[in-house]
Design a protein that fits this description.
By secondary structure, the chain is of the alpha+beta class. The chain has 2 helices and 9 strands, in the order αββββββββαβ. A hairpin with a 5-residue loop joins strand 5 and strand 6.
């Protein structure tokens, strides 16, 4: 009788633990899937393309612009590329008014870019410096870090105005 009771207890114990083990593994796989999806959404950084809103980091008077067109490249703009943008927010007494169509050079991009030494550079936000048709900056100061890759793209004037070169 004691052997019969012990065998029943072991069967019940195994079925309880087995069921709990399956539920734990299902919960772990579900939580891993949620974490992986969250990491994927954070890592998915794309080109600056049409309708991307960018921060303006000079003292031209504009605060935010929306990209109308990337002038080079089929997919979009990266660091150092020129874009055509529309001013969405502007300061009242600035040189640039709301609604004006302007040119801008991308000085910070959330999409990573590889450097020739093997390192990669990426920023937390997308930022632009407004320029005229000849490529000269409209403002007289550039705020925040600016990557030194702009020198290769022939934007040395922006680098001279920048406070910090990354």
């Amino acid at each position: 009788m004691a052997a019969n009771f012990a065998s029943k207890l072991s069967r019940v114990g195994r079925s309880l633990l087995g069921g709990l083990g399956n539920n734990i593994s299902n919960l772990q796989s579900a939580s891993n899937e949620i974490v992986n999806n969250n990491v994927w959404s954070q890592q998915q950084r794309t080109f600056i393309q049409m309708r991307t809103v960018l921060k303006v980091v000079d003292n031209s008077g504009a605060k935010k612009v929306m990209c109308i067109q990337a002038l080079k490249g089929k997919k979009g703009a990266r660091l150092g590329d020129t874009i055509v943008a529309s001013v969405k927010e502007a300061m009242p007494n600035g040189k640039v008014k709301k609604g004006k169509v302007v040119y801008g050079v991308v000085v910070r991009a959330a999409m990573q870019r590889g450097r020739c030494d093997g390192s990669e550079v990426k920023f937390d936000d997308n930022a632009v410096v407004l320029v005229d048709k000849q490529g000269q900056p409209i403002g007289t100061r550039v705020f925040g870090p600016v990557p030194h890759e702009l020198r290769q793209k022939k934007h040395a004037k922006i680098l001279t105005l920048a406070q910090h070169i990354a």
